[in-house]
Amino acid sequence: MAGYSVEERAAPHSLEYRLFFKDAAGCYISPFHDIPIYADAGKNVFNMVVEVPRWTNAKMEIATKDPLNPIKQDVKKGKLRYVANVFPHKGYIWNYGAIPQTWEDPGHKDENTGCCGDNDPIDVCEIGSKVCSRGEVIKVKVLGTLALIDEGETDWKIIAINVEDPEAGSYNDISDVRRMKPGYLEATVDWFRRYKVPDGKPENQFAFNGEFKDKDFAVNVIKSTHEHWKALIAKKTDGGEINCTNLTVSNSPFCCSQECAKATVDAAPPCKAANPIPPEVDKWFYYQKN
Ligand SMILES: [Mg+2]
C-alpha cells in the first residue's frame, strides 16, 4: 500500500477508536496533510485513503479536527454512526474514502452548486472489484463526479477506480462505467439520495439534476479543492477547528516534529478487540416514496 501503514488504538466500534497512519520509515503522519494528492500527476492518478470498505456500515472518517487526523467513527448525539442498509443496498456500495491534500472550504461558494463546502477532504467512491481495508492507501484513476448537496452543503463525490484493478485499463471516463457496470451509477445516485432517510432526514439533492460529470470536470474539481487545502495549510484561510498539524508540508506554519506526533499517538489508549456491530445495523430499510 504505497509504503504506508496504520496503527490501531482502542476497540473498533468504540468512541475511543483511532487509526493512525505511518509512512514507509515508520514515522507518524497525517493522512489528510502528509500523503500527497498525486500518485502520478502526469497521468492524473491520485492517492485515495480508504475510510470505509465496501459492504460495511460504520461511518469511519478522517478526524479533521484531531491532531494527526486519524480515522475514527463519526458520532452523532453521543452515538456511533452507522449507515442503514437502504434496500437493496448493503452498507456502502463502493470502497469509500478521501483524496488527501484537498479541502471543501466552508467559506467558499461553489460556482456549480451555489453552496459552500462541507469542511472535509473530497470524497471518493472506488468502484474496483477488490474490497479494500480501512486505512489502505490506494492509487486511483478518476472517472467522473456527482455533485451531492447534503443538508445545504456542496459534497462532491468523485468516481474512481483502483489502478491495480485487473480491469482498470478499460476504464478512462464516466461513460465506461455506464457501459461496463450497468446500473452502478444509478445505484450510486439512489444511495446518496436516500441514505439519511432512515435517520429521519429528507432526501438529499444534487446539482446538475443528479447527472454525472466527466473525468476532466472531476479533475478540475479536485484541483480546486487542492488549492483550498493549500491556502488552509499555509494559514491563508482560517480553517477554524480543522487540525493542520503535519510532518512534511514545506512552508506550513503547522509543521511539527516526529516527537510531538509520537506523543499524540502514545497518549491514545492501547489497541483492543473490535466491539460487535449493533444488531439494529443488520436490518434492511424498506423505503417507500410518498
Ligand atoms: Mg464530503
What is shown here, in short?
By secondary structure, this protein is α+β, with helices and mostly antiparallel strands. The chain has helices at 174-180, 184-194, 215-233, 258-266, and strands at residues 5-9, 18-22, 28-29, 38-40, 45-52, 60-62, 71-73, 75-76, 79-80, 85-86, 95-98, 123-126, 137-150, 153-162, 205-206, 213-214, 284-285. It is built from 4 helices and 17 strands.
Give a description of the structure.
With 290 residues, the protein is of the alpha+beta class. It has one domain: Inorganic pyrophosphatase (Inorganic Pyrophosphatase). Helices cover 16% and strands 25% of the residues. The protein is built from four helices and 17 strands. It has helices spanning 174-180, 184-194, 215-233, 258-266; strands spanning 5-9, 18-22, 28-29, 38-40, 45-52, 60-62, 71-73, 75-76, 79-80, 85-86, 95-98, 123-126, 137-150, 153-162, 205-206, 213-214, 284-285. The chain has a five-stranded mixed beta barrel. A three-stranded antiparallel beta sheet has the order 1-2-3, with helices on one face. A hairpin with a 4-residue loop joins β4 and β5. The longest helix is centred in the C-terminal third of the chain and has 19 residues, at 215-233. The radius of gyration is 18 Å and the shape is globular. Bound molecules: magnesium ion. Magnesium ion (MG) binds at residues 118, 120, 123, 155. Belongs to the PPase family.
